[in-house]
Write a structure and sequence with these properties.
single chain; 1248 residues; Amidase signature (AS) enzymes; 11-stranded mixed beta sheet; 38 helices; transmembrane; membrane; transmembrane helix
Length: 1248
């Protein structure tokens, strides 16, 4: 029955809709589990039934002696084919002799089917995401306003500036910013496409082959806009003797997106399918079209349209008090030579007046005419007048917008975003709006008379009217260089009309949002209250959902397996029904053994007693015979007429149950010889003793596990390895030192190895193994410290400079002391930017005089970023279990971001800065850098505190007496109920975004549905309240200039030994500039020079005011302001935009891998300062990682760790791309354990 149900499900391929989705009755994983359980149950029952069927068939044949067939050893082996499929290979003779029989064929088919049944069910029955066929339906969309309603658009523009603050311009200012952002972004991307075409030499003069329009909606939907109503420039020139560039760009209807997501349409969203689903919609709705007509004219041809060229003009023209001389003139200017080109004059309709401009624009400038000299409503166009360079060419351009019924809208949605496209003028498109409404309006009848009001703000936002004062704007300059001067399109440049159409495309989108899905407005008011009204439109939809039936062609052959299992079950059922007697199954090993040992020897098996049967032995036929109650096997070669009526082979009725009758062989045991009995008992006892020896293992023994890979090794892996005695802390130290040696000469991630590391590890191993004590989860775990964190051992603490080489710190830094108390092994010191990059602007990330240039491993000459680059590279390559860095302006977060690891900048004061080489106590923080969030949590708990550390009064602010166990917050469900905000106003303006910005923001947008699926409540545009002040008023360098000048001498004064005699900043400057290894002046010292030049101290009112203002900029102006305003737990951003406000506020940030730059990414050189080419480091390149950050309130580490862990476990992006193979160390634990001690760490070539 069950196999029949499974077969029917596979054949029908039912779709489960909302039954299986993220929050449905079944999730995809639970459905897969149920399918596997069902398949396994069927497989087990099928094997049981088939074995019983074969056993009954063979038992019946062996008993019915008169049939003359008997059974063969090959046939008796058929049950093993099913229960032990490998026996078909090891005992292939059985297949050779029995497989060609009917019963053998069934057994062979059954064995193969049993092996593959679960796989077949998984392929054909387990629910998988599938595309259905397109199906036509009616969809509903919410309508709130008429098309191109400027009042509605401005009212819905998001701005923190309210009407109370700016009653006159708050709304127009906002909409102009929106137009500028969208228009420039779309235009810039369009020009990029042209650049690629030019570089590839694939430009065209054919309008149909030229790049389509481009737009981006809400940063996650890419829009493609085709050119429609295409005209022939050459033909127009022949008619009018004027170069006419006339284009029309059709945009899709963005309302389809809202309709697709509205629950009323019941379309499964990607988030409903764990972010994996996609869907496609073809909607029968009109498309907005922008029409741009540009005529190339001379000054003489422009005379009727330019006031300053009129005979009675007052010159020079006063642009602020322009006279209006048209009161006595015909507004149609008595007709003009250009009327038929632009459609002016009463014959073209009311209000079709030509424009009048006050003056001529200067070279590379443009003017806008967006009004008329009449109060009558009805103007449908705006006009632009542009002047080319030194050549006397002008372009007069008309822009207007209509709705066309010749298009449909196609929308494709996925978790990473969507694409929206207008499909136009396709005669085979049954979903074009004209197909739904045959009498739909088009042409002049569908022109929008409201759009010019929107276009007016748009043109000003793009500085298209700055020619009034000849402002020489870059946008106007580029546009006027695109003026056509010959009657054909330039294959290597877009035309001016095309460029204007693409720039104006954003106005079509804003005009269409919440607008009707028809060409008309049939409501009384221009906008609707109470949430709007639903309108319906025809559509064709296909949405992925979970379904059975398989998804790939290679899965189709599995139907044979499902049919075979069902068929064999049916055959067995029919056999059992028609043969109701139940015979002893002598193919069962126990029954066969009992029978065989009581059977006489046979010459047919001569020679196989010791090695078993082979070859011809398998095809000998055997029958059951009996002597009274003694039943035995006999070759068919012997026929003595006995046994046909054996009372021992009694039949039992099927109705009496399935228990096999007691074998008469058991009654013959008394006939064994005493010697045989003793041998049997001895054999039995030896077997029992052997079994006892095997099973009598200590209860603490753990099954063997392979040694973990050091590239992925976690603290939990280490704890498991220690507890199961797979490896020791000393083994880890040996392995890490050996791995460091493999990459040190090229990447320089480590500045010094602790010569005591191995002996410390061995001592900790002794504590754990001999004394059975541990100091905590980090007991025996190696940790690498940044070279500015003080340790009172044989290691130097130099901040990378020879000025501190040989100095002796008074004691361990509090962080190092805490780690030792937790049982960690201080493995060594990592490379860094010298003085944590507080020396001079002309320098490179990761360079220090002592350590050389640290480089990342994901690209050739990769910039390690930030001053904690050595710790990050070491963690990324598995050169240490854990690493520690310091962060003053992003030096933990930035290198963790670019090296694909986890970094935490803790709240200022959570980790003590005592005996850490300072920059400024106001901003310095010490934080973990690890491969996983949980490892960072373990490390932070060990490092933090204590509250009230005498060496750092900032620790007094710790709000808890006991440091939290941050690792306990690492739960996969950690994002459930999280209230997260996205302050998008920290992002660069779209027009200023680099390729790196775009990729990181796109990747960030792509994971937002995942955050929602993990239970997070995300507030988009939870913007920083005072971003302008943050961008313009922060005094980052002032805090560091004055702080370092004060805090550095304080650090030096506490040293137990100072071999260079440097005591303050002036000494340090002089010493550095005169010590050759410090590479001055190639690497500058201007930070120190500026600091010494300033008269400010840490007590100066100006300094204190600047620090206070910086604190405001990091709290209420940005992070805390957004958290409070939107009631959030944390903020979430791409890491590149996360850290600087937190630096000012002293708030915690965690970064976790998000993605990698794609393979086509252009390489960007950077080095932290000065000329990037000098340092030759690459900060943006294919394969280089980038991360996602969570930012919390001060001392809110527990929550952001919880959020980051849940995201990390759901994505594991760190393992999607690996470092370059040549930089991946090959040493693993097993090699280090085999080689034993590695010798002196100095052999690594590290500085002494």
């Amino acid at each position: 029955m069950l196999s029949a149900i499974v077969l029917i499900i596979a054949l029908r391929g039912p779709r489960y809709g909302k039954t299986i989705h993220t929050n449905g009755p079944l999730t995809a994983s639970s459905a897969a589990f149920l399918t596997s359980v069902l398949a396994k149950l069927i497989e087990l029952s099928f094997v049981t039934v088939l074995v019983a069927f074969i056993g009954q068939a063979l038992g019946r044949r062996a008993f019915k002696r008169q049939a003359g067939r008997g059974v063969t050893l090959a046939e008796l082996s058929m049950r093993s084919w099913i229960t032990q499929p490998g026996s078909m290979l090891t005992q292939w003779h059985t297949v050779r002799y029995a497989g060609i029989t009917l019963l053998g064929g069934l057994a062979l088919l059954g064995a193969i089917s049993a092996m593959l049944y679960t796989s077949a069910a998984t392929a054909l029955v387990q629910p998988q995401l599938k595309w259905p066929k397109w199906h036509s339906r009616v969809m509903a969309g919410l309508v709130k306003t008429e098309f191109a309603n400027p009042v509605y658009i401005e009212a819905n523009c998001k701005t923190p500036v309210t009407e109370l603050r700016d009653p006159t311009y708050y709304d127009s200012t906002c909409i102009q910013m929106e137009h500028a952002a969208m228009g420039y972004h779309n235009y810039f991307s369009y020009l990029g496409t042209w650049t690629d075409l030019i570089n590839n030499g694939t430009g065209s003069s054919d309008q149909a082959q030229r790049p389509k329009g481009y737009a981006m909606l809400n940063d996650i939907t890419t829009i493609t806009a085709p050119w429609v109503e295409q005209t022939n420039i050459t033909a127009l020139y022949a008619t009018h003797s004027v170069v006419v560039n006339n284009v029309s760009l059709a945009m899709p209807h963005p309302g389809v997106i809202q309709a697709a997501m509205d629950p009323i349409n019941k379309i499964m969203q990607p988030a409903d399918l764990d972010g994996l689903g996609t869907y496609n919609i073809r909607a029968s709705v009109p498309s907005p079209v922008v029409h741009v007509l540009c005529a190339t004219l001379t000054q003489a041809q422009l005379q009727p349209f330019v006031y300053e060229l009129w005979v009675n003009a007052t010159t020079p023209v006063n642009m602020s008090n322009l006279p209006l001389p048209l009161g006595d003139y015909d507004p149609y200017l008595d007709g003009t030579p250009l009327d038929d080109i632009f459609g002016w004059g009463p014959i073209y309709g009311e209000g079709k007046w030509p424009p009048i401009f006050a003056k001529l624009p200067g070279n590379y400038n443009t003017l806008i005419n967006d009004t008329t000299y009449d109060e009558q409503y009805g103007r449908d166009s705006i006009y632009l007048l542009g002047k080319s360079g030194t050549e006397e060419y002008y372009a007069l351009c008309q822009l207007k917008v209509s709705l066309t019924p010749a298009c449909s809208t196609s929308y494709n949605a996925s978790s990473s975003g969507g694409t929206l496209q207008a499909i136009c003028e396709d005669p085979n498109d049954d979903l074009a709006y004209i197909s739904s409404l045959r009498n739909a309006t088009s042409g002049n009848s569908s022109l929008s008379k409201d759009w010019p009001n929107i276009a007016s703000e748009w043109s000003r936002s793009l500085a298209l009217n700055d020619g009034a004062v000849n402002a020489n704007g870059s946008n106007a300059r580029l546009l006027t260089q695109l003026i056509l001067t010959t009657p054909e399109l330039n294959p290597a440049l877009p035309s001016m009309a095309e460029a204007l159409a693409v720039m104006a495309g954003c106005t079509l989108l804003s005009s269409s949002i919440d607008s009707p899905f028809v060409e008309f407005w049939n409501y009384t008011l221009p906008s609707l209250n109470a949430g709007g009204q639903f309108q319906f439109f025809n559509a064709s939809v296909r949405a992925q959902q979970y379904a059975s039936g398989g998804t790939e062609p290679y899965q189709k052959p599995f139907y044979i397996i499902l049919f075979a299992v069902f068929g064999l079950n049916l055959v067995a059922l029919l056999y059992f029904i028609t043969h109701r007697e139940w015979y002893t199954d002598f193919s069962e090993p126990a029954n066969l053994f009992s029978l065989a040992v009581n059977s006489p020897p046979s010459k047919e098996l001569a020679g196989c007693c010791g090695g078993g049967p082979e070859g011809e032995h398998y095809k000998v036929g055997w029958k059951l015979n009996s002597d009274n109650e003694h039943v035995f096997l006999e070759s068919l070669e012997r026929d003595d007429g006995e046994g046909a009526g054996s009372p021992g082979m009694k039949r039992r009725r099927f109705s009496e149950g399935f228990d096999l009758m007691m074998s008469p062989v058991r009654k013959a045991t008394g006939r064994f010889s005493s010697a045989s009995l003793r041998m049997a008992l001895l054999s039995f006892l030896m077997t029992c003793i052997a079994a006892a020896a095997v099973t009598a293992t200590p209860s603490t023994q753990i099954p063997f596990q392979p040694l973990p890979d050091l590239f992925t090794l976690t603290v939990d892996d280490i704890l498991t390895g220690f507890s199961t005695h797979q490896f020791s802390s000393a083994d880890l130290v040996r392995a890490y030192i050996a791995r460091t040696a493999e990459v040190q000469q090229v990447l320089r991630p480590v500045i010094e190895i602790n010569p005591d590391a191995l002996s410390i590890a061995q001592a900790l191993d002794t504590e754990r193994l001999v004394h059975n004590t541990t100091r905590g989860p980090l007991h025996g775990v190696p940790v690498l410290l940044k070279d500015n964190i003080g340790t009172a051992d044989q290691l130097n603490t130099t901040a990378g400079s020879y000025a501190l080489h040989g100095s002796i710190v008074p004691r361990d830094s509090t962080v190092a002391a805490n780690l030792r108390a937790a049982g960690a092994v201080i493995l060594g010191k990592s490379g860094l930017s010298e003085w944590a990059f507080w020396r001079g602007t002309n320098n490179s990330n990761g360079w220090s005089a002592r350590g050389g240039q640290v480089k990342g491993a994901y690209y050739e000459d990769q910039d390690p970023s930030g001053s904690s680059g050595g710790s990050s590279v070491a963690a990324a390559l598995g050169l240490t279990a854990l690493a520690v860095g310091t962060d003053t302006g992003g030096s933990v977060i930035d290198p963790a971001n670019i090296n694909g690891v986890v970094g935490i900048r803790p709240s200022t004061g959570l980790t003590s800065r005592s005996v850490v080489v300072p920059i400024t106590v106001v901003q310095d923080s010490v934080g973990p850098i690890t491969r996983t969030v949980k490892d960072a949590a373990y490390l932070l708990s060990a490092m933090a505190g204590p509250k009230g550390d005498p060496g750092d009064n900032y620790t007094n602010a710790i709000p808890f007496s006991t440091i939290p166990d941050y690792a306990s917050y690492c739960t996969p469900s950690g994002l459930h109920g999280a209230k997260l905000g996205i302050p998008r106003n920290i992002f660069p303006a779209p027009i200023n975004r680099t390729e790196a910005d775009i990729q990181q923001i796109d990747a960030f947008n792509g994971i937002l549905p995942l955050l929602a699926s993990l239970g997070a409540n995300t507030t988009d545009n939870a913007n920083y309240p005072d971003i302008n002040a943050y961008n313009t008023e922060a005094q980052f360098t002032l805090a560091l200039d004055i702080g370092f000048k004060h805090d550095f001498p304080a650090y030096m004064s506490k040293l137990k030994f100072n071999p260079t005699g440097v005591t303050d900043l002036a000494d340090l400057l002089n010493w550095t500039q005169n010590f050759r290894a410090e590479q001055y002046p190639l690497r500058s010292t201007d930070f120190w020079e500026d600091s010494l030049a300033s008269n400010l101290t840490t007590e100066s009112p100006a300094y204190l005011a600047a620090i206070a203002h910086n604190a405001y900029l990091g709290t209420n102006a940005t992070i805390q302001g957004a958290l409070d305003a939107y009631g959030l737990d944390a903020l979430v951003l791409p890491t590149a935009y996360s850290v600087r406000p937190a630096v000012y506020a002293g708030y915690p940030v965690i970064t976790v891998p998000l993605g990698y730059f794609n393979t086509t990414t252009a390489v960007v050189q950077a080095g932290g300062g000065g000329d990037p080419a000098v340092w030759g480091l690459n900060s943006v390149a294919p394969g280089i990682p980038f991360g996602l950050s969570f930012i919390g309130p001060r001392f809110g580490e527990a929550q952001i760790i919880q959020f980051a862990y849940a995201f990390e476990q759901a994505t594991m992006f760190r393992y999607e791309n690996l470092p370059l193979a040549k930089y991946m160390p090959t040493t693993q634990l097993h090699t280090a354990m085999a080689e034993g001690d590695i010798g002196c760490p100095d052999a690594l070539g590290l500085p002494k």
